[in-house]
């Protein structure tokens, strides 16, 4: 059930990206704005067809799968979901169960609602929610089903600190249950704390990949983000204190 990405390219936005990942891993995809993170995720889940290279999961090429087969394989959280019509959160979640072939849709709905703690939101209209509430609802929808692969584009966007940590704990649990979890992120501290491996993109190319400590080096941060960083490490995790490079350092 492994993922293999080989010399993947999409127009001028992504070039010759190759990596592999295994079930049980939480893989973070990092990079500055415009580095190619969202493009890579859309290629991984089949929303875009590569201009070169291939994405295969368990030996099957994603771009050659039907939409139904892709739905059985993966859950996807886009960076900016489309605005929903005036429907309730419950209706929105139930619509997300179409084509999932669930044994017990009611139990599955209850599971994701409890996981994201959105019981009080079910009767409200999706369009009436705050940005953070909408994000939690969309994450709940992405978690519906038992697909072996979960792809999330900026899952902590619009969330306060409590829910950022909650969502990362949930994604960590998903990986612990044997899923492959692939996440595009901006928060380097959360990436270092929760991810098993990181992919760092720069200008549409893969600058570095590997363990967080190796990828988030001074040289890589300077090249990809034009920053220098000081790391604070405790038994509970790590945090990043960034500063801009001076003209002499850049």
UniProtKB/TrEMBL annotation:
Question: What InterPro entries does this protein's entry cite?
Answer: AAA+_ATPase (IPR003593), ABC_transporter-like_ATP-bd (IPR003439), P-loop_NTPase (IPR027417)
Q: Where is the ABC transporter domain?
A: 3-228
Concerning PROSITE patterns, the annotation shows: ABC_TRANSPORTER_2 (PS50893)
Swiss-Prot/TrEMBL keywords: ATP-binding, Nucleotide-binding, Translocase, Transport
GO terms (molecular function) for this protein are:
ATP binding; ATP hydrolysis activity
Q: Does the keyword Transit peptide apply?
A: no
Record-linked Gene3D superfamilies = P-loop containing nucleotide triphosphate hydrolases (3.40.50.300)
Q: Give the matching Pfam families.
A: ABC_tran
Provide the function of this protein. Answer: Part of the ABC transporter complex HmuTUV involved in hemin import. Responsible for energy coupling to the transport system.
Give the protein name, as stated in the record.
Answer: Iron ABC transporter
Q: Which organism is it from?
A: Pseudidiomarina halophila
């Amino acid at each position: 059930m492994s993922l293999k990405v080989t010399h993947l390219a999409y127009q001028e936005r992504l070039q010759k990206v190759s990596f592999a990942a295994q079930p049980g891993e939480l893989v973070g995809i990092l990079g500055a704005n415009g580095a190619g993170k969202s493009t890579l995720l859309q290629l991984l889940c089949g929303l875009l067809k590569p201009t070169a290279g291939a994405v295969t999961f368990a030996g099957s090429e994603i771009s050659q799968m039907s939409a139904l087969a892709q739905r059985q394989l993966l859950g996807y959280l886009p960076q900016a979901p489309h605005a929903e019509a005036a429907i309730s959160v419950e209706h929105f979640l139930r619509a997300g169960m179409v084509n999932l072939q669930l044994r017990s849709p009611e139990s599955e709905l209850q599971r994701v609602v409890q996981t994201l703690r959105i019981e009080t939101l079910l009767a409200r209209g999706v369009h009436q929610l705050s940005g953070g509430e909408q994000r939690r609802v969309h994450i709940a929808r992405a978690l519906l089903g038992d697909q072996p692969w979960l792809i999330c584009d900026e899952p902590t966007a619009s969330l306060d600190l409590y829910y950022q940590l909650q969502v990362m704990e949930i994604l960590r649990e998903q990986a612990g249950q044997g899923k492959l979890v692939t996440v595009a992120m901006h928060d380097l501290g959360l990436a270092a704390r929760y991810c098993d491996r990181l992919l760092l993109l720069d200008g549409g190319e893969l600058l570095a990949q590997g363990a967080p400590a190796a990828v988030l080096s001074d040289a890589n941060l300077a090249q990809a983000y034009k920053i220098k960083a000081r790391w604070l490490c405790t038994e509970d995790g790590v945090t990043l204190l960034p500063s801009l490079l001076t003209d002499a350092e850049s």
